[in-house]
Structure formats: C-alpha cells, structure tokens
C-alpha cells in the first residue's frame, strides 16, 4: 500500500485532532496515543481547548492517520519522522527547531497526560496561534496547580503561560468563600493531612481578557470538576456557567 503524506494544514490538524481527542478521552486507545507522544522527537504544538498539546510529526505527517494505520506503518517500519518532517515544514512554512519554552510546556503536558517523555532532544514547529497562547493567555496546565492564582503585574502578564506569580491572598479569599465545598457541584472532596478540604482554584477568564486578576475571576472546584472544565467535551458550557456563577457571587 502506497504511503500518502499530508498535503495541507487542514490535513495536519485533522490528524492532530484524532490524536489529541483520543488522549483526552476515556477511549481504550488513550494510552497508545499518549505513548506515541512520549516517544516523539519533533512536535506540532496545538491549542486544544485551553491547553497547549503536542502532536508528534511521525503521526501527523501521514494523511488521514489513525491508530490502526499508524500501527501498520510502525510494523512495516515505514513510520519515520525523517520523511514527515520536511513534508510538514513545507506546509507550515518553517523548519522545526528547539525551543526552551516549548520544551518546558511539553514536559508539563506529558506530566498532565501521565507519561514520562524519553530523554532525547526535541524540536518544535511554531505558529502565530501558539505564540499568542504563550504571550497573552494563561495555560490550563499551570492553572491546575491549586496555588497559581492572581497577579496584577503587566510584566507578569507578558510572560509565557506557566510563569504565574503565586498570590496566596487571592487563593485564600477564594477558598474562604467556598467554605470547603466545590462552588460548582456542591460536592465535598477528601481532606488533606491538615484537616482542610482539598479544593483547586480555577481561572475563569484569561488574563488577556481580564487584565488584573482578582478573586472574582477564580472559582474553587473539586479535582473532578476542575479537570472536566479543562478537558471535558462540555468545557465551553462550563466556562459560561462559571461566569454566570461569579457574577451572582459578586452581586
């Protein structure tokens, strides 16, 4: 069977969607796709919902790729980044290169999806979309850390996602308001060793839209609802509900 490479950006992003949607689902294919990410060397960063995900060249370079097709390519020893890298570079209009910020984001993404990447040098393609995500939008990967809320420094807002200065006072205000209960579902989660109920702080509106961050832009969620807000199929609906809830809390 003849190997057919991607021919357009839409071909690439169709493959990216196949891979990323599988990873962020309950599908039995999830681990297989995640393992392909951890083994990759060259990546196409992609904004998925409110996170920056990474798709390996060796998967996204073959037209209409799937788990079954990719396993066949691997078995036939025809899945090779040396073939897909120049094809993708020609389509996106730039060559892949090492990028420290993207490497850091990749490491966080691997931690998020539960894999430890191979110890190898990696390179990435960049796009205006990804640059914008770094420069003007917070990353949900970092937002998951319960303490990373709040900042009013313009310099801070210019940094890449993941460089948030932790504002303990903002976090304390939000958790005090929640009083140990998830502000979305009303559920009570487990208790930490200090006896306090475990909740996570979630930014509702990105700093690029919100400007100065404050407790009225943060909602306390249980771990399940927090991850659903970022990775669930109804994340946009939840965002809209959170905004309405915060408006009521502020009134």
Automatic annotation (TrEMBL):
Q: Which UniProt keywords apply?
A: Endonuclease, Hydrolase, Nuclease
Domain HNH nuclease as annotated: residue spans: 169-227
Q: Which GO terms describe its molecular function?
A: endonuclease activity; nucleic acid binding; zinc ion binding
| InterPro entries (UniProt xref) | HNH, HNH_nuc
Chain segments annotated as transmembrane: none
Q: Organism's domain of life?
A: Bacteria
Check the record and name the Pfam families matching this protein: HNH (PF01844)
Protein name (Swiss-Prot/TrEMBL) = HNH endonuclease
Q: What is the lineage of its organism?
A: Bacteria, Pseudomonadati, Pseudomonadota, Alphaproteobacteria, Sphingomonadales
